[in-house]
Amino acid sequence: TGLTADLALPRKATPSTLGTLTEIGSASETAPVTAKATLSPKRVGAFVDASKQAIIQSAIPLEAMLRDDLVMGAAVLIENLAINGNGTSPQYTGLRNTTGMGTVVAGSNGAAPAWSHFVDLESKVTVANAKPDQRSGYLVNAVTRGKLKQTQFATSLPMIWQDGNTPLNGYRAAVTNNVPSNLTKGTSTTVCSSAIFGSDWSMATIGLFGAPDVVVDPYSKADTGQVKITLNQFADFGVRQPACFAKVDDLITG
Fold it and tell me: Is 0.85 surpassed by the pTM of this model?
């Protein structure tokens, strides 16, 4: 939060190369390759016109409710773009469309969620040396969570989704319907869900440039007895280490 200028998030793309040496042998120079994700402000916003009569006669503080609706709407949109943004200006590139993350394929026409899919997501990042730790976890939608609560590990075994703070494969699991559930894979049309595993979610960064800016304008539409409420929020999203993440986009949950 509180960003004003562009922010460069450096990362190591290729590590140093070291070798064995004799007792007093000369070490060789190495050149690790670095890269960066740069966050720069991109605007989300909207406005709403409310009649002064509605504001006066409302049984609840209507103006405050409309301001809150705009702020919450911006938060939902920023989260959605952080997950699904296609990178076409003025959108930023969301996590699912980030080059370099691992991919698990459920089936040529998708497949119902199974225990193996979530283990495979974990394995994808582990093979890339992104060892899971306390910052690891899954990101799914509500449909997938419901499906996993009704899907067993195997016959006569418990359900995949467990109780407690680490309900999925021993890790945390966040749920948001900004993770899509209407994807298509082969003949499975608009019924597939995505799921993401991250070994270190601090590698996915949302940058907020300033606070949500809400302007209440009672003047420009005074002739029609309206108040214009406008919100602007500047944000961006970047991934420092894409290999810390893996996704599956063809879990049949519909």
Answer: yes
